[in-house]
Design goal:
With about 220 residues, this protein is mostly helical. The protein has seven helices and no strands. It folds into three domains: about 110 residues; about 45 residues, no CATH class; about 55 residues, no CATH class.
Length: about 220
C-alpha cells in the first residue's frame, strides 16, 4: 500500500513537472512572439524616421531602430537555440553580440536626447526674456573681475541651470533620458565596460520598466518624434 502510494505521488509529481515545463515554454514562446512584434515595429519605425527633415534626428532615430532590429534578431536566434533549433551556434558569442547591438542602440538614442536638450537650449537663449536676464547678470559683475576662469564658471552654472529648467519643463524628454541611462547599466555590465552589482542593474531595470509602462499608459509622456 505504501509503495503504491509513493508510486502514485511520484507519477503525480512527474505529471505536474511536465505541465509546469510546458507552461514555461508557452510563456517563453509568448515573450518571443512579443519580441518578434517589437522587431517588426522597429523596422516600421526606421522606415518612418528615415523621412524626417532634421538630419540629426533622421540619423539617430533610424540607426537606433536598425540596431534594435539587429538586437532582436540575435535574441530570437538565442531563443531558437534554447528550444533545440540551431543548437550548433555559440550561445556566449551571440549573447555578447546582442548586448553590443543593444548598447549601440542606447548610445545613439542618448545622442538624440542630448541633441534635443541642445536644441531647446538654443531656443531659450534666443528668447528675449532670457537675453534680458543674461545682460542683467553681466552688468552685476565688474569688468575687471571677469577673468577667463570666472567667465567659464558663470557660463557653466548658467548652462546647468538652463538644462535643469528644460528637463523640468519637458517631462517626455526627462523620462526618455532617465530611461535610457538606466537601461545602459545592463549592457555595460554584460560587456564588462563598467561592472556593477546585480542589485544596481536590477534597480535600474525596475526604474526603466516603470517609466516604460508609464509612457504606454500616458502616451503624452512619450518623446516624439
Amino acid at each position: 500500500m505504501f509503495l503504491n502510494h509513493m508510486l502514485k505521488n511520484r507519477a503525480g509529481y512527474e505529471q505536474l513537472a511536465k505541465k509546469l515545463k510546458q507552461l514555461e515554454l508557452n510563456m517563453s514562446t509568448g515573450r518571443k512572439l512579443f519580441r518578434l512584434g517589437n522587431m517588426i515595429h522597429a523596422v516600421e519605425t526606421a522606415r518612418k524616421t528615415y523621412q524626417l527633415s532634421d538630419p540629426v534626428l533622421r540619423f539617430c532615430l533610424t540607426v537606433s531602430s536598425l540596431t534594435r532590429v539587429a538586437y532582436f534578431v540575435c535574441d530570437n536566434i538565442l531563443w531558437a537555440r534554447s528550444i533545440g533549433f540551431l543548437s550548433s551556434i555559440d550561445k556566449e558569442r551571440w549573447s555578447l553580440r546582442a548586448s553590443k547591438y543593444y548598447f549601440a542602440s542606447l548610445l545613439i538614442t542618448l545622442v538624440r536626447d542630448l541633441y534635443e536638450v541642445v536644441q531647446q537650449m538654443d531656443q531659450k537663449r534666443q528668447d528675449p526674456k532670457q537675453q534680458k536676464v543674461n545682460r542683467h547678470r553681466e552688468q552685476n559683475h565688474p569688468q575687471e573681475s571677469r577673468n577667463r576662469e570666472h567667465i567659464m564658471e558663470v557660463n557653466f552654472l548658467l548652462s546647468f541651470m538652463l538644462i535643469l529648467h528644460i528637463l523640468k519643463s519637458n517631462p517626455p524628454l526627462l523620462m526618455d533620458l532617465v530611461k535610457n541611462l538606466c537601461d545602459l547599466f545592463g549592457p555595460l555590465d554584460r560587456l564588462s565596460v563598467y561592472k556593477t552589482s546585480p542589485a544596481v542593474v536590477g534597480l535600474c531595470g525596475f526604474i526603466s520598466s516603470s517609466l516604460g509602462i508609464l509612457t504606454v499608459a500616458q502616451p503624452v509622456l512619450r518623446l516624439k518624434p
